[in-house]
Specification:
513 residues; alpha/beta; five-stranded parallel sheet; five-stranded mixed sheet; 17 helices; 14% strand; elongated
């Protein structure tokens, strides 16, 4: 939401009010943050403005409040959000809102359009860790090794010995298994050896910088939670760190309580990430088992039944009366539809980007599209739908798998035929656009309502209207086509108008010469 003063017709001569503001979060996210942190409506107004880069005097003038009242509101916001600076508040709000109440297009700190002015963090009351002088590596207090192992492993990488020792003492006292490193190179070696759950990384270090270390840490294990600690906090450095997989930001000096809060939140995130990965593995295993079940326990018996029906209809089991023959033929058609559904589902389950990539080669699209149109010619004639093709003689190639692309085109063109009225038309055209080859498949059919349009690529989704009652299908044709095109690093756009028709635009990247 933008809080430009012009929205309230407040005239300000101060140039600060003329600068562009940060487009942060939508109204629902601000409402969520207000409830999450128990912030009053007036306090959330102050929080919005402070995140946009306005200072206390400007906010007081804009909201017509006393300077002391603004300071009180801001202090309350900082206290409830457990932060001590504008930068930390900005990162906390964006991260929490996106993780707990994501909009249609989640905002990330590095996707924000921010003011060019640097917001240097200021700590009003802070505990200076540099006052600690005890060697942290020899200090373990309070917890058994079992408890330390259970709470997680933390690696502190900082070139300041006092900072390393202070963090070590605070974290070890809380029961964490803590290790330290004095620079980026030794820290990277320890990351490879001990595989920590969380890493505290100083940005400014001799040799390997903190930014470079963040990238290498993500390469080793993307689930390791990285928290940046620095005395040079700016919006630019925070954004750059977030791009390199940093989870949170601590500006020096910080208190032990701030360290504990960030550590607990970071370890909880890692726990959830690992749990999500484990559940995904279980899901994949169940999927494999289900595919096996469908293939052998369902598909095979249905094929056998279909073969028996064919034998009966051909008279191998004796003469079949007219009514009996009619019933068997109808049952055979039902089994055909069921087998098609099973085959479509098995086909969809087998489409994996990794597997397709292994079979990629330079593919010319013109022959594939010509074969597809020729194959579907009889179907369009039965439906009395004209099928037209406008293909150039020479068309750049793509890197892909010919068979899977042919299947995607078949699904989309047959979809246009099935949902066109008698006398309608389906056209296939191609063009080049911004490094992509675009294949447009248009029909003059019944169209798709804007209400149903977002769901047409969902598995088993079918539009149910009077005009679609006579169209049979599994609801998997479009999802299969979408998955194939995305496996080729492409995408599909859809434009449709109810009662006038639909256009599917397939965008495939051109193969490098």
């Amino acid at each position: 939401m933008s809080l430009s003063p012009s929205d309230r017709n407040i005239k300000r001569n101060n140039s600060v009010f003329k600068r562009s503001t940060v487009q942060l979060l939508d109204e629902k996210q601000w409402l969520y943050l207000q409830k999450r942190y128990h912030i009053t409506p007036r306090e959330i107004q102050v929080a919005k403005l402070i995140c946009q880069g306005f200072n206390k005097n400007e906010i007081a003038e804009y909201l017509k409040l006393k300077h002391g009242t603004v300071k009180t509101h801001l202090r309350n916001v900082y206290r409830r959000a457990h932060v001590k600076s504008k930068l930390a508040l900005l990162l906390r709000f964006v991260d929490d809102a996106n993780r707990f109440y994501a909009p249609a297009k989640p905002v990330s700190p590095f996707a924000l359009t921010v003011s060019k002015e640097k917001l240097v963090t200021k700590a009003s009351t802070s505990y200076d860790f540099s006052s600690s002088v005890t060697s942290g590596e020899d200090y373990i207090e309070g917890s058994s090794q079992e408890m330390i192992q259970e709470r997680g492993c933390i690696l502190v990488i900082d070139d300041e010995k006092a900072m390393r020792d202070s963090c070590y003492q605070a974290l070890t006292k809380d029961g964490y298994r803590t290790k330290t490193a004095e620079d980026g190179h030794s820290g990277l070696q320890k990351i490879r050896e001990i595989k920590p759950d969380l890493v505290l990384v100083d940005l400014k270090m001799p040799g390997m910088s903190g930014m470079e270390l963040l990238e290498k840490t993500a390469d080793i294990d993307p689930n390791i939670v990285s928290v940046v600690i620095t005395g040079y906090a700016t919006i630019e450095s925070a954004v750059e760190a977030m791009k390199r997989n940093a989870y949170d930001y601590l500006s020096k000096p910080f208190t032990p309580d701030q360290l504990r809060i960030v550590t607990r939140r970071g370890l909880e995130r890692r726990r959830l990430a690992l749990e999500s990965a484990r559940l995904q593995q279980e899901k994949d295993k169940m999927k494999e088992n289900f595919i096996t079940l469908v293939s052998h326990q369902l598909r095979a018996p249905l094929v056998s039944i279909q073969q028996y029906f064919e034998l009966i209809l051909e008279g191998f089991a004796g003469e079949v009366a007219g009514k009996q023959k009619e019933m068997i033929e109808e049952a055979s058609k039902c089994i055909d539809r069921l087998l098609k559904l099973i085959n479509d589902w098995l086909n969809m389950s087998s489409i994996e980007a990794v597997n397709l990539t292994e079979k990629f080669e330079p593919v010319a699209l013109t022959p594939i599209l010509s074969q597809t149109v020729k194959l579907l010619g009889p179907a369009s004639e039965r439906k009395k739908v004209r099928l037209q093709m406008g293909l150039p003689d020479s068309f750049p190639v793509v890197q892909g798998n010919a068979e899977s692309l042919k299947q995607a085109f078949t699904n989309l063109i047959s979809n246009g035929i099935n949902y066109s009225r008698e006398g309608g038309m389906v056209t296939v055209n191609t063009r080049e656009e911004n490094g992509y080859l675009v294949i447009e498949i248009s029909d003059t059919g019944i169209g798709i309502s804007q209400e149903n349009l977002p769901f047409i690529f969902d598995e088993f989704f079918r539009v149910k209207t009077k005009e679609t009652r006579g169209v049979t299908g599994s609801g998997l044709g479009l999802p299969i086509a979408k998955r194939i095109i995305e496996a080729h690093n492409g995408y599909i756009k859809v434009i449709s108008e109810l009662g006038k028709g639909t256009t599917f635009s397939i965008h495939l990247p051109k193969a490098e010469q």
